[in-house]
Amino acid sequence: MVIDFSQGKLIVTEYEVQVRLNVASIVLLAGAEDIALRREPPLLIANGGAVRWSVKLDNETQLQSVQEILGIDCE
Q1: Residue 63: helix, strand or coil by DSSP?
Q2: Distance between CA atoms of 74 and 49, rounded to whole angstroms?
Q3: pTM of the shown model
């Protein structure tokens, strides 16, 4: 599923998440098992060993869409 948000696009499958940022064509990639979600503020967090990044989403609807696809709960 492709989700447009103010900073770019989220491409989410049950196996991985890609964040394609508008700034300098940056692409962040993480496996589904390395993703966590935070409800307030709506954050997508990747923590896979030595690599850690997070992206603030625009709203709760985007967060719920990611949550449904990955099948994980929010913190």
Answers
A1: helix
A2: 20
A3: 0.89
